[in-house]
């Protein structure tokens, strides 16, 4: 199934036209609003170096799930 999404506002300019796989393999700083300093801190604290690492992190996935549960409970 083909999926289309406009990620221009969510990614730094250099990453806007890449495939999903290329974005997932990109440094976490490819996400708009995540600085190189932020990326260094994520790497030091959680060993998160790529967008894929961030998206599959058990800590961030648990936090997202809890936030979703709260939304559903309202």
Automatic annotation (TrEMBL):
The lineage of its organism: Bacteria, Bacillati, Actinomycetota, Actinomycetes, Pseudonocardiales. It comes from the Bacteria. This is Uncharacterized protein.
